[in-house]
Design brief:
With 98 residues, the chain is mainly α. The protein has six helices and no strands. The chain has one domain.
Length: 98
């Protein structure tokens, strides 16, 4: 597992963001791959290592077969999802329109 951290140069902040993205229902594994380079299998290994076993089993049950976690299975209108905290994380200064 340590090879993944070294291979992709994952920092603690990156690790937190990967876990957050993996927990989000509508963030596909492809988005994690695009941003961090980790495949679905590598994300699963990372989550297994970083989470308590009970929480990992809950997460795995949630994402297994979930259409929104896989772009190919997603509805055509769902291209991406941004977490509410994403603006803070990416330092995006664009305000919401009312």
């Amino acid at each position: 597992m340590m090879n993944i951290y070294k291979k992709y140069h994952i920092t603690d902040r990156d690790l937190d963001r990967i876990i957050e993205m993996a927990w989000e229902d509508r963030t596909p594994f492809d988005a994690i791959k695009d941003q961090f380079g980790l495949s679905e299998a590598e994300v699963i290994k990372l989550m297994r290592r970083e989470m308590h076993p009970r929480n990992w089993r809950k997460w795995r049950a949630r994402v297994q077969g979930r259409s929104t976690k896989h772009r190919q299975k997603s509805a055509n209108g769902v291209d991406r999802f941004k977490a509410k905290a994403q603006r803070h994380i990416s330092l995006n200064k664009i305000n919401k329109r009312k």
